Prior knowledge:
The protein has 223 residues and is an alpha+beta fold. The protein has helices at residues 22-35, 58-95, 104-143, 190-205, 209-216, and strands at residues 10-12, 45-54, 152-160, 172-178, 184-189. The protein has a 5-stranded antiparallel β-sheet. A hairpin with a 5-residue loop joins β4 and β5.
Amino acid sequence: MKKLQLLFCAVALIFTSCTLSNEDKAEKLVSDCIKDYLTYPESYEAISTRVDSSRINISKIEKVLETTKEVAELYSKIESIERKMDLAQSTMEIYAPTQYYDSELSRGEYNRAKQEVEEYRSDLGRLNPKLNDKIADLRNATEDIYDDEVNGWAVIHRFRSKGENGEQVAPEEMIFFCDFEFEHCQGWTTKQYEFISKIIKLFADSDSDRELLENLDGVQYLF
């Protein structure tokens, strides 16, 4: 398998037969899409296909995945800087000059730690506004992820295939969102989609950005 866990796959197929059921059309479309990402496309075997109406705005799915990754990376970087700044501030307290003791060594350690604190504070002043902006973008994306009306089809597809080592792997499941004519689709693994659902729920359950970040820190990013 090449990279089935990619953000999305998109294909365009035109069905000339009007006698195919929605399940037949969906399975033809998504199977051709999946085969493009398999190391051994000939090993692909469909197991089941379920079709239902959908109101998902697929452009927002990509936005949620991308922005969540950016938020997580920024938050991790900020936490690392805060820990380093706390350590530097502790060093300043240890080597702070007093009226009883002020050696050249202590002054050097104090000044070095002081400079580090100033640099870390500058980094935080630059990164925190970026984090706030990304959180706002993520909030907007999660709030707009559902359209008011049905806009296409949701296709849950299970299949089996061989992995990169040529051995049969456990059956996999993906969810695709297709247009009404089954000419185009985009798909994600069900784990990715479950992750998106968790993010949406976190926004609903978090009373503040700080609580959201703390909760997000415990969610594994499936990208």
